[in-house]
Amino acid sequence: MEEMRKLFIKQAWRSYVIGSTAALFCAVSLIVFHTSRLSAGELYIVLLILSVSIPVMLLAEWYAFKRDTTSLRKLTFESTPEAWQAAAKETLYFPIACVKRVMLPHFIGISLPAASLTWMAILMDLLTFSPLYILLAVIAGLLIAGLHAMIEFFLVYPLSVKLAAVLHEQAPVPSSIVHDRSLFVTSFRRKLIASLVFTSAFPVLMLLLSLQVRRMSGVTESIIEFWTWASVLVLITAGTAWAGAWLLYRHLLTPLSKLHEGFRRVKEGDWAPVQSLFGDEFDELSNGFNAMISGLERREKRNRELLQNVFSFFAAALDARDEYTAGHSRRVASYAVSIAKEAGFSESEQDLVYKAGLLHDVGKIGVPDAILLKKGKLTEAEFAAMKKHPEIGEQMLIEANLPAEWIGVLPGVRHHHERMDGTGYPDGLQGMEIPILGRLLAVADSFDAMTSDRPYVKGISVQQALLAIEEGKGRQFDPRFADAFLHVMKSASKDKGIPLEAVE
Ligand SMILES: [Fe+2]
User: Fold this and answer.
1) What's the predicted TM-score (pTM) here?
2) C or N terminus of the chain, fewer CB within 10 Å?
3) Ligand 1 center to residue 458 CA distance, Å?
């Protein structure tokens, strides 16, 4: 935050220098235009007047700048939430404070001493021109200050929005900076009207001023001189209109680019809210956008849950077809997740393992009741039909056009009956050729199959099944997952202080 605060103050001064330079450029051109008519003595007096007025202006401005950044400068990580809110408000208000600073301490700071000193010099016969010039110079000064204020306002605005976002992010109490109406500093309508009125009035007033000066100087001019002067005016008019439009466009771009970034992130599946601290109507627009994406996110979550429920229901319906395997899919899914956890899988990988466990036998839907529910040993042909279920399951899921986060289950469904020695089915893959999900599910599936009763054979005990897994390491099972499962089962039995026999 410290860095951002320093950068903000530095950039604010930079904007001030840019605005002042533009104003100074106009003022100097005006002075140069007139100094040609001043004698050396008069020029000396004018420079003396400026050397007194400019420090007065800088002093008044320095004081105003300090006052405009009080809350921001005092802010520390120990400050109260109210102080953070005040600093955010001050930051968003800063561009308007700049306009006020330029129009009051800056403009009055120079024009008041300069005008009164010039007036005195005229009274003392040190300067010979008409006092009306003072009035004209003050009006010209006012116009130039307006131009300066507009430039500074638009240059400072993106900085203040950026700093407000940093304050919002770094506030020690996250809710310190409340997005309420108190952070609404000015409406976009007002900014639009003010800048359009100013950019259109500025050249006309400049025209009137120079007409007045010409009338007073009483010079007659040639047609060429008139049109040169007129062309300069046209250029000034076009230039101010262009600058005003460009600054307004840039001003609009700040919130629009944040919204655009928000849309792009949503497209990439990131539901993070966009910044909504702009101090104008865009606060409401971005708050609306944030409400919309949080609604979409909730719906997306609900859809995911619904899909999971549909598949859980599907698995339960499948298991219910065969009274001997009731709950098999759900149990395999939970054994598989405990293996995945033990083997160090990430949360999202564990989620995929669960889904694969739930769906691993989905292809049994395609196996006729006469085979699936047969009370007795299967014939070779029947067993061959039974062995088709991993492929049928995979095909069914491909046709179901699964959403992206479910696609990863396919290798688990197809390969959960492969064996490390290559004697499994459907593809007879060997060792590490078998996809990781297949190797993992094989352990969970075999354990549940061994411990469940079948129509023709009673299930073996947990202890015996674990022994079979131990013995099948490397031949039937991937040792990594077999060991992980054995470890999980042994520590579960130890933790609960019950013999392995009773661990489900
Ligand atoms: Fe199976």
Assistant:
1) 0.65
2) C
3) 18
